Amino acid sequence: MAKILVIDDQAHIRTILTLFLKSELHEVDQSESGKQAMKLTELNSYDLVITDVVMPDYDGFDVIKSLKRFYPKVKIIAITGGGGKLDIGELLDECKLLGADRALPKPLDFHKLQVVVREVLDK
């Protein structure tokens, strides 16, 4: 069992991810923004952070950079459905360059997510 933080500005995605991860027996916290998420990381120790990339204000790129700077051991999975001027592939590649352990496109394939979460946590 791992302690996981899910960050996404869309409530339904946070809810679905949380239910899925809890069904895998993980403890899960949620955040609707990158800024709120960083406050949670000051109060809690997480094994894994799953973050959306395209969010208002403090986006997934900012989250990844901050986590890698202040909590270098935390594992990170970035997720995105695209947005802005970059396509999904470019966004996912950028996340990996910034230090995300894995990057997955939305809509999520939950079988793939299950495998990736296990792989990342086992590193």
CATH architecture: 3-Layer(aba) Sandwich
Amino- and carboxy-terminal Cα gap: 14 Å
Strand content: 15-25%
- Biggest beta sheet summary: 5 strands, parallel
* Helix and strand element order: EHEHEHEHEH
Mean pLDDT: 95
The shape, in one word, is: globular
Number of strands: 5
Low-confidence stretches: none
The CATH topology comes to Rossmann fold
Look at the structure and name the CATH superfamily.
Answer: Response regulator
Number of domains: 1
Helix/strand class? alpha/beta
Count, helices: 5
Helix content: 40-55%
Which helices and strands appear, and what pairs or packs with what?
Blueprint: E1 3-7, H1 11-23, E2 27-31, H2 34-43, E3 48-52, H3 60-70, E4 75-80, H4 88-98, E5 102-105, H5 110-122
Parallel strand pairs: 1-2, 1-3, 3-4, 4-5
